[in-house]
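Example for tutorial group B:
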C-alpha cells in the first residue's frame, strides 16, 4: 500500500529500510523453530501500514521511533499468525499460513514469540509509556477476539456490537501506532482509521481477489463471523442470514454480492474515514494522513 500511495515524504524510505532491518533482527533472536517460522511470516511481506502510521504521526524535529514501528508490526504479525489458526484461514500474504504450513502448535508458539519480541523491543527503549500503550492495545485485541467468539453464528448481532468488536481488535492497534508517533492528538485519528480499515477488510472478505489480498475470500461467512457487509446482506436475503448462522454456504457469497450490502458497508467505512480526518490538526504529514483515509477504504488488497 505504501508504494501504491506513492508517498515520498522526506525520510520515509530510510525509515522503512531501517525498520525492515530491525524487524529481521528482532525475529532472528531465536535460532530455533519459532525464529524460523517468524522469519518466514515476516518475509511474506505485508503493507507495513502500522509502522507507516508511526512515521507519519511523528512530530517535526524528532527522529521517528523505529523501535515503536518494529513493536507495532510484530504485534500485528503475531495476531495474524494466531488469527489464521483461529479462523482456519489457509492463505496469508499469498502464502500458506503458519498453521497450515507448520501445524497449530508451531502457530501458537511462533505467535507468542512474536508478541514477546515486540515487548522486548519496546523495553529496550526504556520508555514505560510505550510499553503501557502496547499492552493496552493487546488487551483490547484479546477482548475483541473474545467478543468475536461470542458473536460467532449470531446473525442478530447489531451493527453497534460489530463496531465495538472492530474498535477493539483493529482500531486500538492503529491508535497505538499513532500514539507511538507522538504528534499531539492523533490517537482518535488512528482509532477511526482502524475501524474504516477493518470494515474495508470485511468487504474484501466478501468480494476481494486472492491475487490482490493474498487471502481467500469467504472466511468470515464460513466461520459465521457477523461482519457489517454480511449483516447488511442478511437483512435483504434470508439465505445469507441462514448461512451466517451455520446453514449451507453454497452460492451465499454470490447472493451477498447481489444485495446492496457491500455498498452500504463501504458507506460506513467512508463515514469512519471522514471521522478520522476530522481529528487531523496541524500534523506535519497531514496530506499523507488524509490520503491514507481514502486509500484504506478503496483498496484492492
Ligand atoms: C490484516 O491486516 C488484518 C486486519 C486487521 C484486517 P493488514 O491488511 O494490514 O495485513 P498485512 O500486514 O498488509 O498483511
Ligand atoms: C483481523 O480480523 C485480525 C486481527 C485484528 C487479529 P480478520 O480475521 O478479518 O483479519 P484477516 O481477514 O484474517 O486478515
Ligand atoms: Mg482472519
Ligand atoms: Mg478479514
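The residue assignment follows.
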Amino acid at each position: 500500500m505504501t508504494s501504491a500511495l506513492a508517498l515520498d515524504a522526506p525520510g520515509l524510505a530510510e525509515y522503512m529500510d531501517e525498520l525492515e532491518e530491525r524487524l529481521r533482527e528482532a525475529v532472528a533472536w531465536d535460532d530455533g523453530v519459532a525464529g524460523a517460522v517468524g522469519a518466514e511470516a515476516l518475509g511474506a511481506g505485508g503493507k507495513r501500514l502500522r509502522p507507516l502510521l508511526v512515521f507519519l504521526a511523528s512530530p517535526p524535529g524528532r527522529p521517528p521511533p523505529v523501535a515503536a514501528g518494529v513493536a507495532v508490526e510484530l504485534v500485528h504479525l503475531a495476531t495474524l499468525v494466531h488469527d489464521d489458526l483461529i479462523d482456519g484461514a489457509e492463505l496469508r500474504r499469498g502464502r500458506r499460513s503458519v498453521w497450515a504450513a507448520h501445524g497449530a502448535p508451531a502457530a501458537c508458539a511462533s505467535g507468542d514469540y512474536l508478541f514477546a519480541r515486540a515487548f522486548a523491543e519496546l523495553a529496550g527503549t526504556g520508555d514505560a509509556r510505550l510499553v503501557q500503550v502496547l499492552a493496552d492495545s493487546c488487551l483490547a485485541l484479546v477482548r475483541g477476539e473474545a467478543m468475536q467468539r461470542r458473536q460467532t453464528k449470531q446473525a442478530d448481532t447489531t451493527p453497534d456490537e460489530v463496531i465495538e468488536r472492530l474498535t477493539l481488535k483493529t482500531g486500538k492497534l492503529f491508535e497505538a501506532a499513532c500514539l507511538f508517533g507522538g504528534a499531539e492528538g492523533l490517537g482518535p485519528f488512528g482509532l477511526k482509521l482502524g475501524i474504516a480499515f477493518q470494515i474495508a477488510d470485511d468487504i474484501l472478505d466478501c468480494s476481494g481477489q486472492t491475487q490482490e489480498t493474498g487471502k481467500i475470500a469467504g472466511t468470515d461467512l464460513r466461520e459465521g463471523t457477523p461482519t457489517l457487509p454480511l449483516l447488511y446482506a442478511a437483512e435483504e436475503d434470508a439465505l445469507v442470514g441462514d448461512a451466517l448462522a451455520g446453514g449451507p454456504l453454497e452460492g451465499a457469497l454470490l447472493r451477498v454480492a447481489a444485495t446492496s450490502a457491500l455498498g452500504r458497508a463501504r458507506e460506513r467505512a467512508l463515514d469512519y474515514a471522514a471521522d478520522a480526518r476530522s481529528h487531523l490538526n496541524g500534523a506535519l504529514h497531514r496530506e499523507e494522513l488524509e490520503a491514507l483515509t481514502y486509500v484504506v477504504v478503496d483498496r484492492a488488497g
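The chain has a mean pLDDT of 95. Compare this with the pattern of hydrophobic and polar residues in the output above.
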